[in-house]
Structure formats: C-alpha cells, structure tokens
Amino acid sequence: MDLGDAAFHQGLQLEAAGHYGRAAVAARRLPAPDPRLAASLTSEAAVERMEGRYARAAALYQESANILLNVRGDAYPGSAAAFYNLAQVQSLEGRSNEAGAAYRRVIELSLKAPQSSDETLAAWLATAGQFFHAQGDYSEALVCYRRALTLGEKVPGADEAALGALRDDIHSVLKAQGQDEAKP
C-alpha cells in the first residue's frame, strides 16, 4: 500500500489504483476479513472516486465498511468514516435513498465511537445536514446541524465563519418549518 500512497500523492492515480488493487488481492488471501483489506479497498475507492467511477467506488467503500464493522465493530471510528465515504459517493451517483441511509449510519456510529476529532465529526455532520436539507428532510438536517454546531464550538480556534454558516443553516431549516423566529 505504501507504493500506492506514494503514487497517489504524486498524482499518478492509475499507478496508485494498480498498487491498491494488488494490495487488496494479497489481503484477500489472509485467513479472515482483515482491516488491511479494508484499508486497501478504501484507498482504491478514493482513486475510483477521483476518476469519476462512482459505482465502482461505492462498491469498494461498501465492502470496506462491512469488513470494518465485522472486524472492528461499531465502536471503531473508522467504521463511521467508511460509511461517510460511501454516502458521499452514493450522493454523487444520485442514489439519494442509499446515501441517506449511509449518512444515518454515520450518525448512528458516531454516537457509539469516539471520533478522531470533534472537528472531523462536525464536518461530517454538517455535510450530512446539507444532504438532508437538500432532500427536504428538515428534522434530520436540524439534528445534524445542531450536533455539528455543538461539536464545532468545542474545537479550540474554531472557524467562526463555518460556525456562522451552521447557524445560518439551522435558521434556514427552522424557517422552512415555519419557525422563522425560533433560535438555532
């Protein structure tokens, strides 16, 4: 995988995909689903996504997510990350129902697992909120936005513009729900 990472960071996506694919083949030979296979699949999916091959990327992200859940469980932060990546690609594909389910899984898993940072989780939740907002699912959007704002306010040196945007998003959802005067 190190060769794939090096090629990826040099902008050599085709070469990176080859290295990641070979790493996945080697990891599949291991006796049981292994987190190294999930890592290889995730890296290969990132290349597929960059190249616009969303269906292939989604399949790889889904397999990676399943492996991480089976091997590491719900409490592993990488499980939420895998579903976040899956939701992003499904959204790009226009598969709204599946993307919504994956975003809901991100929310569920994020409640069970300590994330690498509040900042990362806040960003994921803000993106999920934007997705649900665009879909007209205001109650789900509001939950995501409020949680993202709460987490974002905990981050030392938080980006005030991003926090302001979240407040605006909350206000927009409340307005759409007929609660224009409500406080975020």
Shape: elongated
The H-and-E topology, N to C, reads as HHHHHHHHH
Number of strands: 0
Oligomer: single chain
**Which sheet architecture does the biggest sheet show?**
none
- The chain-level mean pLDDT equals 83
Task: Specify the structural class.
Answer: mainly alpha
Q: Whole-number radius of gyration? A: 18 Å
**What is the overall number of helices?**
9
Helix content: over 70%
Strand content: under 5%
Report how far the terminal alpha carbons are from each other: 45 Å
Q: Low-confidence stretches at least 5 residues in length (pLDDT < 50)?
A: none
Provide a descriptive summary of the structure in words.
The chain is mainly alpha-helical and 184 residues long. The chain has 9 helices and no strands. Helix 3 runs antiparallel to helix 4 and helix 7 runs antiparallel to helix 8. The longest helix is centred in the middle third of the chain and has 18 residues, at 54-71. It is elongated.
Summarize the topology:
Elements: H1 2-9, H2 13-28, H3 35-50, H4 54-71, H5 77-93, H6 96-112, H7 118-135, H8 138-154, H9 160-176
